[in-house]
Design goal:
The structure holds two protein chains of two kinds. Chain A has one helix and one strand, in the order βα. By secondary structure, chain A is of the alpha+beta class. By secondary structure, chain B is an all-alpha fold. The chains are: A alpha+beta, B mainly alpha.
Chain lengths: 67, 437
């Protein structure tokens, strides 16, 4: 009985034809619930205040300002 | 008699390789896809990581090995999300944040990334300087040479060549495993401290908490999120490659954790012989009486290798992210004349960081604190955006969004990182806040 072997072509991703991706371009900003919006606002306040605090601390360590 | 049939895929004219069905096809596909996962994980074992892991071994022996085992799933789950997002969208992380969360978050994330990356780059060159001084090579020779090598690596001719050279540099880290065996650790303690979490003798002191946070911060860094997504997009990985990219990331994670563990085991030699530790280069010199000059040279060589790996990955993550947001051509596939701003950013970052290291009496300690704190601040918020993007059904559809177990795991990681980030920020802003010991 003949033994049947199947061959497949394996193509490197860089040589393959481009495929359709999930495109964010036309979607605009993400739709978020009020809770998520409020959390991101809190995160923004936290990050700004921490950045300022650290900037103040680093300037103090560098001797630019007196702590 | 053997008959063979060839299945061709309609619409594909590119050159592929013909292989039999079965494991050969799987292996070849994996080898073609692998790269971004291994590189992002192993490049994270950069100069700062070598210093942190060796210090952990030198000060606490093998007691903190369990932490690495715990960090493996955390780092894998985080990077898997990035790989999934990169394959689904074909775009980088910075571009995603910009388009889905608006300009403020886009600019904030980008600025934070660029600052942290630049400061980290300075520490990579500082480590090269330190290692080369130990073998008697002057900084004004070693640092410019390293900078030239890094620039040459990116300009050497395309993504694939860069990837192959970088993978070779990653695999050089196997030497750490050999060194760990060579220093004859107590394998029973290694196994016990890897599998059973324990606190070193002396208890939970302020400096131990700081070291644990440093280990976590070293193992999971913000640039990794940006780098792997951009790298996956650069390599044009397809939806069908996702499982192989997951495997690549998992193998990279395991390899990185094993190498990190071996660094701790090598550092443990200082602990057993009661040697002081100030930095890896000093450590390398101090072990000569116990292990010979060969081990010293290998540690210094691997320190330089770690710095070069970290520097190329970090510089590329900055250049990719900036190019994505500015919508400039930003690809290693393009020659310099077609993506001048992308290459200019890569080169300028390297030259500026190398230049800073050559300035006499530059406050490197301040730079290291800056890296730790800014990275600690940035990481939890970056993972929150990643988590929100991976739940974005409008963008990803239902097939690629996180499952509920994904979300449980990831929110736990975010909570853990946020807590550590707050402790770190508080510790740096007010060093006397934690006054145990």
């Amino acid at each position: 009985m003949a033994k049947k072997l199947e061959y497949l072509e394996v193509i490197h991703p860089l040589l393959d034809a481009p495929e359709q991706k999930c495109n964010a371009e036309n979607l605009g900003p993400m739709r978020m619930s009020r809770g998520v919006k409020a959390s991101l606002l809190a995160l923004r306040v936290y990050l700004i205040s921490m950045t300022l605090l650290l900037l103040y601390h680093v300037l103090g360590l560098a001797g630019v300002i007196r702590l | 008699m053997v008959m063979s049939t060839i299945k061709t895929i309609p619409g594909i004219t590119a050159k592929g390789r013909m292989v039999r069905q079965g494991w050969r096809r799987h292996l070849l596909t994996f080898l073609m896809v692998a790269g971004p996962g291994l590189i992002v994980m192993e490049a994270d074992n950069d100069a700062g990581a070598v210093s942190t892991y060796v210090q952990a071994g030198a000060q606490h022996g093998t007691h903190l090995l369990w932490l690495l085992l715990l960090l493996l799933p955390i780092t894998y789950f985080t990077q898997e999300m990035v790989a999934r997002l990169g394959i689904a969208t074909g775009e980088g992380h910075a571009a995603m944040i910009y388009s889905r969360f608006g300009k403020w978050w886009g600019r904030f994330s980008l600025a934070d990334l660029l600052v942290v990356n630049f400061l980290t780059l300075i520490t990579e060159f500082a480590a090269i300087d330190l290692a080369m001084r130990e073998v008697g090579i002057a900084p004004w020779i070693a640092v410019p040479l390293a900078a030239a090598g890094l620039i040459g690596l990116a300009l050497s001719g395309g993504y694939l060549r860069w990837e192959r050279i970088t993978i070779l540099l990653c695999l050089l880290d196997v030497i750490w495993v050999g060194m760990a065996i060579f220093v004859h650790p107590h394998w029973g303690s290694v196994a016990r401290h890897t599998l059973l979490p324990s606190i070193p003798a002396g208890g939970l002191t302020g400096s131990l908490v700081f070291l644990i946070i440093a280990i976590v911060g070293t193992t999971i860094a913000p640039w990794q999120l940006f780098f792997q997504q951009s790298c996956v997009a650069e390599k044009r990985l397809r939806f069908s490659d996702l499982k192989w990219e997951r495997l690549d990331t998992l193998i990279g994670g395991c390899f990185t954790v094993i190498v990190a563990g071996c660094m701790m085991i090598v550092g443990d030699m200082a602990y057993r012989h009661h040697l002081p530790f100030s930095d890896p280069a000093q450590f390398a010199a101090s072990v000569v009486p116990f292990a010979g000059a060969g081990l010293k040279d290998l540690i210094l060589l691997l320190m330089v290798n770690a710095s070069v790996l970290g520097a190329t990955a970090i510089s590329l993550s900055s250049a990719w992210a900036y190019g994505e947001v500015k919508k400039w051509p930003h690809s290693l596939h393009k020659p310099v004349r077609e993506a001048p701003a992308f290459y200019a950013l890569y080169v300028l970052g390297i030259l500026a960081a190398a230049g800073v290291v050559l300035i006499p009496r530059v406050p490197l300690q301040l730079v290291i604190i800056g890296v730790q704190v800014l990275a600690g601040l940035m990481l939890p918020s970056a993972i929150i955006f990643l988590q929100l993007l991976l739940n974005d059904r409008e963008l990803l559809g239902s097939r690629l969004v996180n499952q509920s177990w994904n979300n449980w795991v990831n929110w736990t990681i975010v909570a853990l990182l946020f807590t550590l980030s707050l402790i770190l920020a508080a510790q740096v802003a007010a060093p006397n806040l934690f006054t145990w010991q």
